[in-house]
Every structure is written in C-alpha cells, then in structure tokens.
Structure prediction request, 264 residues.
Amino acid sequence: MRLFQADSAASHHTRNPSDLTSFVDEVYATLSGLFAYAIALALFVALGTYLWRQLPDATAVAAPAAAGWSLAGRQTQAFATSKLDQRDKTEAYEVFRHPEGGRKDVFHWTDADGAPIAGLEIYRPGGESMGSAVAEIAGQLDPGGLRELEAAGIVDSKFGSVTLLRPARQDGSRACLGFLKQADAPDLRISGWTCQGASLPAQRAAIVCMLNRLTLLAAGNDPRLAALFAHAELKRTDCVTSGLPALSADWVTGSENPLLRGAL
Prediction:
C-alpha cells in the first residue's frame, strides 16, 4: 500500500515540469500576440497621423486664392478716383496685402441707405496664385454664388478695351454689370462692377467713366506702373454718364444696341 502511494507521489512530481512548460508556453504566446497587436496598432496610429497631417495641404491646394489676404493698415493710398456722381453716395478705400507680395487696392461705393452700388479693384500680384477674376466678380455681383457670368460686350477706356460681364440668368433682382481689364506690363488687373444706371448702355457708360477717372497717386518705385497711367492719361476722354457716346464706336464690340453704319 505504501509502495503504491510512493509511486503515485513520484508520478505526480514527474508531471509538474511539463505542466509548467505548457503554462510558460501559453504566457509566451499571449505576450507575443499582445506585442504583435501593439505593433499593428502603432502602425495604424502612425499612418493615421501622417494622413491627417497631409489633409491641410490638400485643402490649401484646393483653394489657394482665398487664403492669405488680410486688410493692411497705414498703407499709402496709391490710387484715387475723381468724384463720380457723389450725391447720396459714400466712397471707401481699402488695401489688402498677401504674404507672397500681392496687393489689392479696393474702392467701394454705397448709396444713402448703405447698399453697395459699385466697386473697383486694382490688383498687383506677387508670388501668389492670382485666382479667377471672373469668379471674384461673380461673387460680388451675386453673394449667393448661384449665377454664372456671361460676356456682355467690350467698351473702350483710357486703358484700352475692357471686357464686360453680366449674370447669365436674370432673377428679377437689380441689374448690375461687371468689367475686367488685364495689363501685361506691368502685371496689373483692374476689375469691378456697377449697379448704377437704369439701362445696360448707361451702366457701360458708368464703367467707362469710372475707369477714366481713375488716377495714380504713388507708383511705389515701379516705373512701368507710372508709364501705364501716364500713357492712359493721353487717351482719357470726358465722362458721359448716360447715352451711347461713351461706348465703343465699333458696333461689333457691343452685345446690345449696335450702332449701324451707312444708309439702308
């Protein structure tokens, strides 16, 4: 009987090392799985962080024109306009700068009730992307951004021919007319809009008058800018705020109210 108990005890003690080995193997396997899981989790976190850091760059590329512009304080006024029809109208002048060197000199006119009636922008680009002038004019004519612009003819000014733009779809709101002039030397863009005038010919004449009355106060050590305005002054004509005399003399350049030549 004792011999049997001794054998049983011996047998019990001989099985303990294998049980301990199995336990160690299980612990090792569990730790290995946790370690592999931690590595995989760290890789996912690193990948997610990288993609998150790339997201602002993609957003900046998608809309570069709207970024970076800020209102500049204590800037010397570079341009001026002689008085338009200033009865019950207020003029404001602002300068916007871009970190890449661009500058926008902006005029705003409002009526007695504070409603905007006209705007004029002189843009001298730097290293930034210029963006679409047509899109900017469309945003000014229609803050809701629901209407596209279409060509509305060409008029002559002291700066040469100027492209006219108007909303493609009229929705019953007040009629306004945009304009755009791009100069190459120097790199200069003049754009704006007006709601003055009860008819399209009157608005065209108002735009010509606005541009003819635009003068340069300070060239900022840019001889090409000074030469552009000096040459333009030689071609400046008197303002006509209504009727057709201020329009282009060529009937081809007008989209409406063409001036026919010769007898029928």
